[in-house]
């Protein structure tokens, strides 16, 4: 018998949320054969959104089909079982819920099979943003906590738990650990500290291709400066079909990448180039300006706006999505003789299983298929310098060579979730508290 998937094949995707938490797609609507009225389109951007079906008061088995534009497929069928006797006892509370495997950028309609329509029911549809980046964490554990209440009534009986109700949903993320990466660990900064203000290094980027429309062989004004540069590609006067191929050398190896220009805006090379052989594409009216930088310098302070995220996680046996994820505790540990470590703790609006939980096997990931990021490397502790400046002096001016063994930065930045009266067990708002930082 083959060994099945385990947590060793786990995967975590993340995206900083454009809008925090789940958002409505369709308000409570009596189920019908085809439901297309009152649909709010997904707001997950180019990545797309997961669609959550919540069915109340149904009385028969059937199917609900999601039709739209999605990845990896545009149509998805959720199989609805007949309600259990317990669910029939409380049709206003009992629900069937399904989180889509596909990420949708547009919804056409929802279609319900004849038995469902005949039996009746009410459908509510929500959405949450999909994961955008695959991050190389080393541990991730979350839990869904719904405390119950059982009144200790004077009923003439010794039995206590005659009536039990569920209170609010309080999911937590108790463990979220990783090594520190130059690019892939930016989520830690956005969640714990806030959105940085960015400047390029150097402040004036190197001109690589001056303003020109796309041709087969664009003129290269300057080669990247050693040891290598990322390319910034700014597109204007966009025309359909715009794309360029960059051929050069990255970390001493031949490298080729294609950058597809889907609209006016700013694009970035995936590779760091030490030399460029050619840049070009099929002749197109889109105008490009290409520059090179060593990197970006970000500055975040206690006044920076902290962000929320959507986190998808495959733990080897199930796939989950956590909308409205916030963090409250973060640590960066820099040992001189080891690797730099990061850790986070926090909470989320919900912990939602993705896809059909009755399918066997479950040990196949259902989160977005994003390539493993192999180009970015973890940082070793010795790759660190320390400046200790007078509080009235200039930051980064006084180099100290006396710091030894280990540096630990610990941030506690509380978040206060609020359950407003919106007929939901999940919190709808969260307010940041003043942070405490220890070194």
Written account of the structure:
This protein is mainly β and 439 residues long. Among the domains are: 9-133, Sandwich (Jelly Rolls); 199-298, Sandwich (Jelly Rolls). Helix content is 4%, strand content 46%. The chain has three helices and 33 strands. It has helices spanning 85-89, 114-119, 186-192; strands at residues 11-16, 23-30, 34-35, 49-56, 62-71, 75-80, 95-99, 103-112, 122-129, 133-134, 137-143, 148-149, 165-166, 172-179, 197-201, 206-214, 230-236, 243-250, 253-260, 265-268, 275-280, 284-293, 295-299, 309-314, 319-335, 341-347, 352-353, 386-387, 399-400, 406-412, 415-418, 429-432, 436-438. The chain is globular.
Question: Which key features would you list for this structure?
Answer:
4-stranded antiparallel β-sheet, 4% helix, Jelly Rolls, 439 residues, 10-stranded antiparallel β-sheet, 3 helices, mainly beta
